[in-house]
Specification:
The protein has 247 residues and is of the alpha/beta class. It is built from eight helices and seven strands. The protein has helices at residues 9-14, 20-28, 51-66, 73-85, 102-108, 146-152, 188-198, 217-226; strands spanning 92-96, 116-120, 159-163, 178-183, 202-210, 235-236, 242-245. The protein has a seven-stranded mixed β-sheet, sandwiched between helices. α2 (20-28) crosses α8. The longest helix has 16 residues, at 51-66.
Length: 247
């Protein structure tokens, strides 16, 4: 199912001010985007006889049956492994951009006793900049039920919810350090504000992981600008994600 017809893609680019990010995405968007759990047909995990990967695939299938998860299988596995491998790094975990709670469920499966802070407007995307609308994103997209997500995660321990536009909801965690931050905020301004808040609060060895680095030009722009003069490289991963390891 297409988000918009292929014939409209050139119109989207030609009606926006050109930039290196828009030009870079001119070719990337010439495919039929997947929505909902149809995205499960892309980015399968190779098992190579690994029992842990097989177990994760089974668990992920269950999560997909419970809620809508807008991640490829390999992207979901990246989140799982980032959580698992940062267990020795001190600090809490945060996710900004919770949607319907599927990625938070993945995080909970591997976080151990670490505290998980979940931030979302639960009213969809806030302000959208010109660079963001090529996907297309628009204000209010990806609305999810606050009560529904709380109910879905109600059996998980050490999970806290913050409803509103980040970072205005960040006051309770301003003095916390973090071992892992998972971002799925889609837009330039939101990504930029998240990086500004969390970067200085990351423990050495902590990971900032973001969805949509490849598919959303605003996300790429925010990461590339923020880390341009910082020592950490922005690592592009399989699927659409990127990650940064704090030095």
């Amino acid at each position: 199912m297409s988000l918009f017809p292929k014939k409209n893609l050139i119109w989207v680019f030609d009606t926006l001010a050109p930039s290196k990010y828009l030009l870079k995405f001119r070719k990337l968007l010439f495919f039929e985007p997947f929505i909902g759990n149809d995205i499960a047909t892309r980015g399968r995990i190779s098992h190579y006889g690994c029992a842990d990967r097989k177990d994760f695939s089974r668990a992920l299938k269950k999560i997909r049956s419970e809620t809508e998860l807008l991640l490829e299988d390999i992207e979901a596995y990246h989140i799982y492994m980032a959580v698992k491998r940062t267990q020795k790094v001190p600090g809490d975990i945060a996710e900004v951009g919770v949607y319907k709670g599927g990625s938070a469920k993945i995080i909970c499966s591997a976080k151990g006793d670490r505290v998980l802070h979940l931030f979302d407007t639960f009213e969809g995307l806030p302000k959208v900049d010109e660079v963001d609308i090529v996907w297309p994103f628009y204000e209010g997209k990806f609305t999810a039920s606050y009560d529904g997500v709380r109910e879905y995660l109600n059996t998980e321990r050490n999970v806290f919810f913050y409803k509103g536009i980040f970072p205005s909801t960040s006051e309770p965690v301003k003095d916390r350090s973090f071992s892992l931050v998972n971002l799925d905020v889609d837009t330039y301004e939101s990504t930029k504000k998240c990086l500004e808040f969390f970067y200085s609060r990351m423990s050495p060895g902590g990971i900032i992981l973001s969805h949509d680095y490849i598919t959303a030009p605003g996300v790429m722009k925010a990461f590339d600008e923020f880390f341009f003069e910082k020592p950490e490289p922005v690592i592009e991963t399989a699927g659409s994600q990127c990650l940064v390891v704090k030095v």
